[in-house]
Give the backbone structure.
Amino acid sequence: MRIHQKTSYDDDINLFEDRRQALWYLALVAGAALLPFAVSGYFLGEVTNVLILAIAGMGLMLLAGHTGQPSLGHAAFLACGAYMEAWLNNRGVSFLISLPAAGLFAGAVGAIIAIPALRMSGIYLAIATLAMGIVAEDVIVLLEPYTGGVSGTFVGAIRLAGFEIDRYGSPSGFYWLCLAITVLVALGYANLLRSSTGRAFVAIRDSEVSAKAMGINIARFKTLAFFLSCFVTGLSGALMAHFLGAFNYEAFLITISIQMLLMIVVGGMGSIHGAFFGAMVVGFLPQIITGIRQQITMTAIPGLDTGIFAAILVAMIILEPRGLYGQWLKTRIWFQLFPLARRDLFRRHKSYLKTERLK
Amino acid sequence: MSLFAVDGLSKFFGGVRAVDGVSFEVEEGEVFTIVGPNGAGKSTIFNLISRFYDVSAGRIFMDGKDITDIRPDEVIGHGIARTFQNIELFEHSTVLQNLLVGRHSRRGTNFLQNLLFLPSVRAEERAHRHEVEAIIDFLDLQAYRDKMIAGLPYGVRKIVEIGRALACGPRLLLLDEPASGLSVEETQDVAYWIEDMQKDMGLTVLMVEHDMSLVNQVSTRVLALADGKPIALGTPAEVQADRNVIEAYLGIEEEAA
């Protein structure tokens, strides 16, 4: 059993609890960086996909998980990033400029969407963003001169500081690029959460009335949350463009938006870790299911793999509403307290019932 | 000049005159209490001052400045913090984080600095924490510092709400029924804290309260309301002896009886 003794305010301000935890995360990043030397090109591609999904997940998590503004149309912002990246890349713009531009474009669109969204919350906001996601599919097709319409568009290799990075030509280079961006986004996200901006987001999620009374400008911070969320999602979209190589509007259908939401719910709402766990589930689980099914029978029954995937997800949400990250925390505490953990340690109990009255 | 004043404050919901021409002034350093039966318009006055409701008529002044038309999030900038009758804490955060949100109006860094967590942000976080720790010590919340609000008993939540309002660093503190739902001992603690806020911290308190023992113990002056209209103003003893107040609470005495 390990007891962590806090001795200064910095213990609560620092990113990591103690040196031991920092070393674990360092080892994780180092392990991830060395992965291309250990695995095949195919598997590396899958891991790259998971990283890109995790970035998108962090984008949505900031908005839905931390600011409490659900979005069912986030694939539209993936599309903003992807098409902007493709458009700039095909005009010979360096990745150093096109990537931030893709993010800023998606962020700007998000900030504009935020203006009507400020007046909505909960289920109404979810429906409005769902509608936006559906409209976005048509807008992509209509903007044919820029997006290639139904037939889609191609994107060339990434030009970065004299190097040409291509998903197939140099899979390791592309993987490292995605890994670097993932780490940077996660760091920025964690920094926000441990400062006043992040606290303002969480305050808006838990009680808008109180947040106002504490001097938080709701309109400004919701718009900021939309901007940051869509910016990060746009970055993910730009990387996704290079991952796909060629894509059309079908890469950003409403099902992708729902998949993103699913990802953060299964991963664990309201935690950065949740975005990563969720990306792993969405990225790997269907492959694992198909792999196991192929061991039993090679004949594919339409819908079977997806059905099993869906059943597992439903079971996960019923058994652990706080997601995989919640399960991870429980497991960790079980080991930390070993052998003193009690069975009902995490049983949720309501100490009193909150009334429906607002004030 | 008084610290805070409302002049002819009125709020009509359709035909209902929830607050009807209420005027009062709160002097710097006093504990001013508003009492009245249910539906007298006490909480509505608080919501008008916090700018959650727009006034139907009348003006609100803080420190000589007219704050009748500002946004709710600007109220704290004028030095007014409040608590809520039916606790409005951030449920899925710890006590410490709740109190730190109280420091929001004193933030000196923007989101870009936060994103990079520059040394100035760390310095600010330490300073906020220092302020918040003083409040934790004052209100004896040490044991609950890292506990989630969602698991805390009612009494502690009430205290955390007071702490969060104090963390804003206000000059005028609005307490909406601070003793409701508290035990006798907890109410006594609240009374001592209000005295300390007034005498040691130099705060001015505007309070709505039903518990007459608390009102008597801490109030400098009391305003009694009934049906949105002021009926008596004076020291706690004067107001309790006032014929109109007795009528409002107990009904008109039958002469024949």
Observations:
- Chain B has two domains: 1-79+170-257, 89-158.
- The longest helix of chain B spans residues 119-138.
- Residues 89-158 of chain B form one domain.
- Chain B touches chain A through 53 residues (CB under 8 Å).
